[in-house]
Amino acid sequence: MLTLIVVTLLANVILGFELYTAIHNGNTMASPSIAHVKNQNSSQLYHFSFKEKLHTHVKKKGEYVIGIRPNSSVFNEVYVIIYFNNGNTISLSLNQTQAIVKLHGEEKLTIFLTGLSYQNISSAEMALNLVGFYYTPLNDGETD
Origin, by domain of life (predicted)? Predict the structure, then answer.
């Protein structure tokens, strides 16, 4: 029993380290509101990683489509992770650009944005604008 626990913990540590190095690209540390530059052979790509807190308020409670509209001429890769104050999480990327969520009036969101772009993105606000972050009611109603 003890051996199984030790093996499981060791496997989790190894997988956690591999995930961390894959996300943070080796020696590049992710830091809120700081853009890191990474050069490629023929074209220059910029690594970005931001954390942004956002307060939303919807007048009509219900299901909403929350998503991104990234421009492929700006982004080589983009990943957006959204944490809600109730503990729910959604992940968006170039391959999965929207999700359906229930919003209940005022929501506090923590948004993590990371990826590679063809231009230097210097702030979280700029990244949110370029990634085309939006939320809209699933049914007919108001748009925020």
Answer: Archaea
